[in-house]
Amino acid sequence: MTLDDQKQHRAGLFYVGVSALLWSLSGLFMLSIKADLLTIVCLRGVVSGTSILLIFFYVEKERALPILLAMRGPTLAAAALAAASMISGLSAIHYASAAEAMVIYATAPFMTAGIAFLFIREKASWTTLVASFIACCGVMFMVTDNSGDGGSLLGKSLAIFMSLTVAGLATVMRHYRNIQMLPAMAAASFLCSLSTVWFVDLASVTGADLGLITLFGVVQNACGLALYVVGSRRISAASASLLTALEVPLTPLWTWVFMNDEPSYATLVGGSIVMVALFGHIVVEVRSSRGQPALAPVS
Q1: Helix, coil or strand: residue 293
Q2: 239: left (phi over 0), alpha (psi -120 to 50) or beta
Q3: pTM, two decimal places
């Protein structure tokens, strides 16, 4: 590896690491904004979609419009799945807790293995199967908790749905590798707004809420995505997965430290089991997949 390659690699690690840090702020934003859920989803979609499009036009310049006009079924499918994951993910944090939502979300790579096998006949490795079983045990321990300390069953169900849609998105991105990430995610953000605009209550939005929603859309989503797209081109898929997986423990950590959103006992135990499965699986992949280019994130 030349000196220039080393610089590019370090830059890629930094960009993807910062993107994971920004994505992990979702719980803080959701707990800090006092407006109702669907209003947050709608306004964040408008801000985020516009920001991503501006970044896309800045990066691609004269190629941007032809790329948008060339969008077809796979890109639209990716946008629809991403929109569903955004809505269900924010709703999961609202109705359950950041910790519970992220623990269940951590199983998305394993759900991806199952969906990829069913639809594109991509066989999972034995390490993925073992890690999937361990992660499922952790989630089952958490979801079946009846102590009353955890979030609602609706919130947990929404987190499962989010993970399934993220897995579907990852499968589409694997099968159609020429999908442009930025316009697909911009379309997803606008779909979020379009599907919730009928339920918006602007009277519930204070000036502070509007500022936080703007930061939510620009910093947490648009900038996080842009940094990931730029950084993931410089490092391997396994390295990108390892760094973006930091979103899972960081999201509930911030809400615990800054918002006193303390996880339940079942969430801590189940989450620890899932974390062992997730990071153990990624470390194995890092060792066996060095040098492969990164794909789209599953987050």
Answers
A1: strand
A2: alpha
A3: 0.87
Q: How far is 162 from 155, CA to CA, in rounded Å?
A: 10
Q: Does some domain include residue 198? A: yes
Q: Is residue 36 within 8 Å of 266, Cβ to Cβ?
A: no
295 domain residue, yes or no: no
48 touches 218 (CB < 8 A): yes
Q: Which amino acid is at 114?
A: G
Domain total for the chain? 1
Q: Angle at Cα 89 formed by Cα 179 and Cα 60, nearest 5°? A: 30
Q: What is the mean pLDDT of the chain?
A: 86
Collapsing DSSP to helix, strand or coil, 133 comes out as helix
93-111 in b/e burial notation, b at 16+ Cβ within 10 A? bbbbbbbbbbbbbbbbbbb
Whose CA is closest to 86, among 142, 44, 135, 139? 44
Helices 3-23 and 224-232: crossing angle in degrees, nearest 10, is 150
Amino acid identity, position 208: A
Q: Which two tokens stand for residue 145?
A: 């908790």
What are the pLDDT digits (tens) for 217-274? 999 999 999 999 888 888 777 677 778 888 888 899 999 999 888 888 888 888 888 8
- Euclidean distance between CA atoms 167 and 119, whole angstroms: 12
Residue range of the domain that includes 230:
16-288
Residue that the structure tokens 């034995």 belong to: 126
Nearest one of 243, 219, 89 to 156, comparing CA atoms: 89
Instruction: Examine residue 191 and state whether it is found in any structural domain, yes or no.
Output: yes
Q: Report which of 86, 75, 84 is spatially closest to residue 47, judged by C-alpha positions.
A: 86
Residue 2 counted as domain residue: no
